[in-house]
Amino acid sequence: MVASLADPNMPAMVETIIPESRRDFKDPYPSSSTSIGGPRNSVRPLPPSYGTVRPHNIHRPTLIEAAGMRFIIMDAPRQNNLHLYIKECSRQKVTDVVRVCEPTYDGRDLRNAGMYLHEMAYDDGTSPPREIIDGWLDLVSTRFKKKRRLSTSAGSISGGAARAGEGGAVAVHCIAGLGRAPVLVAIALIEFGRYDPVHAVTFIRQHRRGAINGKQLAYLEQYSRASQSNDCGCVIS
After folding, report:
1. Which residues contact 171 (CB under 8 A, 6 or more apart)?
2. Which of 96, 148, 227, 234 is the most exposed, having the fewest neighbouring CB atoms within 10 Å of its CB?
3. pLDDT digits over 166-189, tens only?
């Protein structure tokens, strides 16, 4: 029987939340910048609207820690406040940053800070395509489980950085950090933490208010572990 989101018998889970008292993340206003390019399969070019992206409500980075994995869910940094995110990611020993949306900052700054940037964008309001899921799970498996799960078309996974499983973390962000990014974290909890989908969503929502809407919850409830099926086959329409 699938547990409900209000299930009082849900097992206690380890949680760590970056304190709300941190005031570094209060500048949501983007600054003007010119479009730049980047190496293939590493940093996507910034769109023409990069310098005119409307301000969005900022949510402080949230640490999700479970089943030997550590994830930082963030909203999208802007070029003028990227240094604040880099500072927080460095504090949390982030080895990899996964960008699930269009570029809003120059990814070379992350590389200069010793972090790998992975491009895994997919359309807002949709379920992640199979190639994105495979690339994400391969990254999580490599960083936390110390083995490659499969080859990925979502971008190469580099070695050489300190493994996230040795006290580090993987950061993932979309625009607001409430939809696409939490969905990927939920998939990791389902795959590697053996969480029930509803428990995974509940756990994330306990840490990050407003994460994962009804459509995304319905998708995750139908999600099949890769070990049980080679193709999820379920989509958000």
Report:
1. 61, 71, 72, 73, 74, 89, 92, 94, 96, 97, 98, 115
2. 227
3. 679 999 999 999 999 999 999 999
